[in-house]
Amino acid sequence: MLASDAGDGPRPTLPPRVRVCQVPAWNWPERRLQVPWPVFSPALLPAVTRHVRWCDVVHAHGLLYTGTVLSLLLARALGKPALLTEHIGLAWFPAGARRVVQWAATESVGRLSARLAGRCYGQHDRVVALLRWQCGPGGRVKYQRNPLDRVLFRPPRPGEREAARRELGWEPGRPKVLFVGRLIARKGMDLLLGARGPGYDLAFCGPGDAGPLRPHLGAGVEYLPPRPREELVRLYHAADVLALLSRSEGGLPLVAQEALACGLPVALAADPGLAAYGGCPGLAFCASPGDLPRVLHTLVVRGRLEPGPAGESGLDAFLPSASEWLAELYGDRTPGASSGAGSPLG
Description:
Layout: E1 2-4, E2 21-23, E3 25-26, H1 28-33, E4 39-40, H2 44-54, E5 58-61, H3 66-78, E6 82-86, H4 97-116, E7 119-122, H5 125-135, E8 141-143, H6 160-168, E9 176-180, H7 189-193, E10 201-205, E11 221-224, H8 229-238, E12 241-244, H9 254-261, E13 266-269, E14 283-286, H10 292-302, H11 322-330
Parallel strand pairs: 1-2, 5-6, 6-7, 7-8, 9-10, 9-12, 10-11, 12-13, 13-14
Antiparallel strand pairs: 3-4
Helix pairs in contact: 2-3, 3-4, 6-8
């Protein structure tokens, strides 16, 4: 796995066979402009070259990143199979220069990336449509849902919810609405703050600038620093509802999947591209920001998801297993066979 060393969030705990190469990068665009586009150091070129030569399959994420374009160009030159997953598509920005630059970059750099990849995947109807536009004719674009670790993300066992709330200092009977994500305007923080009500408190958790929250802290609003995925499970167990009013997503948000698997109801902004998830247990859509207080109140009153007799909550139809996901992407080239002495990371 090759990525930048930019970002403020905690580093995930990965299995021993997963090796990570982090290339130095400048993260000023995200910190100052809320544009998640790391500016890599010159060390990117030799790192990408080394890894593409070593691997069996190149799987790039994101149309516009420098590492994506370089890895796909090298894969084409070396005859390596190459896949591309686009997660967001055209992200939401207020009208202005960022929106224009994003459109121009997507039509140039993004189009090049899409056409270099052997296959392209999207997790949202809007993203799939964008990829088909970028790729042109040929049918190399597929809709592919993200899998989820259903061992880590699971409903709380007896006593775990109460223990998690005690650790956080939350009153036993006071409902908590949770936000998990980067603290940026696109994630709809302002919309959730505008939906405060007397029947629940708000808890925000994630990396980024918590400054906009400070005037509201202590008045039914709480900020929690970012934490690894393993610790997020305790937050999902402790909370009563997850709310994420993102202005643009490339599919069902990963935090929404994690929360649902932990038995936590989820409120999302209505999005025609997520129609396939309309029957997902515990998932509710807000037609407008003004509808959010009513939806949150309904979910709080309804309560957490109760697993069925076999411990399931009806999510299997909406979240593929990791083995299904890997088989679709890689077939008989499933990664993992080259983790020994031949790895360039060794």
